[in-house]
Design a protein that fits this description.
Main location: membrane
Protein name: Voltage-gated potassium channel subunit beta-1
Structural class: alpha/beta
CATH topology of one domain: TIM Barrel
Membrane topology: Peripheral membrane protein
Mean pLDDT: 82
GO molecular function: oxidoreductase activity; potassium channel regulator activity; transmembrane transporter binding; voltage-gated potassium channel activity
Helix content: 40-55%
Radius of gyration: 21 Å
CATH architecture of one domain: Alpha-Beta Barrel
CATH class of one domain: Alpha Beta
Strand content: 5-15%
Subcellular location: Cell membrane; Cytoplasm
Strand order of the largest sheet: 7-6-5-13-12-11-10-9-1-8
Largest sheet: 10 strands, mixed
Length: 387
Amino acid sequence: MQVSIACTDQHLKSRNGDHSKQNATSPNVVNAARAKFRTVAIIARSFGSFTPRHHISLKESTGKYTGMKYRNLGKSGLRVSCLGLGTWVTFGGQISDEVAEQLMTIAYESGINLFDTAEVYAAGKAEVILGNIIKKKCWRYVSVAETERGLSRKHIIEGLKGSLQRMQLEYVDVVFANRPDNNTPMEEIVRAMTHVINQGMAMYWGTSRWTAMEIMEAYSVARQFNLIPPVCEQAEYHLFQREKVEVQLPELYHKIGVGAMTWSPLACGIITGKYENGIPESSRASMKSYQWLKEKIVSEDGRKQQAKLKELGHIAEKLGCTLPQLAVAWCLRNEGVSSVLLGTSNAEQLTENLGAIQVLPKMTSHMVSEIDHILGNRPYSRKDFRS
C-alpha cells in the first residue's frame, strides 16, 4: 500500500533555468509542451520508413563518453540507464550526506540517469537529501523513484505533491504504485495515476510488487476507460530469485509492453560473499531491523547458497570480473529488464558494480547455461514446455 515514483534525466528541468516564470504544472503549459513533443516525434518518424507499433524495434544504445547502456522503459519511449542507484537503507540512515553526494556524483558521471527513493526511506529524509544534491549540482537531467503510503486517489495525489516538494522537483518521469491496495478499486488507482500524469506531475506510471494478474487488470481498466496503462513493474531479481522476472513478466512485456525495473541484484549483499564466514559487524544483516536477513543467511538454504556462490566465484575469475559484477551482468542480460537498481554504501562498491557493464557482452548463452547448471533453480516457462 505504497506509491513509488521515478524521474529520468531526460525530462527534469534545470533549477537555474527560466521555469520560475511559469507554473510548470499548469495544464496549458503542459499541453503546449506535449503538443511540441508530439510534433517533433511525427516529423522525426517521417524521415524513416513507417514501422507498425507492434513490430517496433527498441534498440539498446551506448553512451559515447561513459559506456553506459540505455534502454526503453518497457515499450514506452522513455530511455533510462540500464543501471540505476537506489537509496533504500543508505540515504538518511546507513551513510552520511557527504557519502550520499559522493555516490550520486559517481553514478551521474558514469551515465546513470535513474535514482530510486521513497517517502518511507528514513521517514522522508532520503528524498530531502536526494533533492538537495540535485539542486546543489545543478543537474539538468536525473531520474528519481519515490514511495508513498496508500493507493487511493487522495493518497496518490497528496503523496506525490509532498514528495515533489521535499525533492524540490516540478515533476518526475515515472510514479510507481508500490504494493497493491485491496482497499482501493483498481479503476480509482488507474484514474488517479492518469490524473497526475495529465496534470504534469509525472510522465508515466508503473507498478511495484504486483502480480501479473493485477498488472493485467490495471491494463484492462485503462483500455476500457481510455486511461493511461502502466509501463513498468518493479520486481526483486537476482541469482536466487527468478520466477517472476523470467516467467511472468516476459509475457506481459511482449503482450502489453510492461518492462521490468529490478532491485536487489546482490540479494541484500548475500551475493557479494561477505557473509561467507559469518555476519560482519558493519553489514546490513547486523542491524537490528534486519534480523530476518541474518536468519536467512544462517539457515540451511543460506549455507547452500554460499556453497553455490563459491562455484560461481570460479566463473567470475574465468571472466576476469568479481562475483558482484557477474551477478549484476547476469540480471542485465534478461531481455525484458529495462534497468537494474543498485544499492551501495560506499564509492568502492558502486564503482565495482558499475563494472558489470563491461561483463555484459560476456554473458553468452553458453555462460548463462553454465551458471544455470550451478544454481539449479532455472524456472520453466510455457515456452520451455512447447520446445
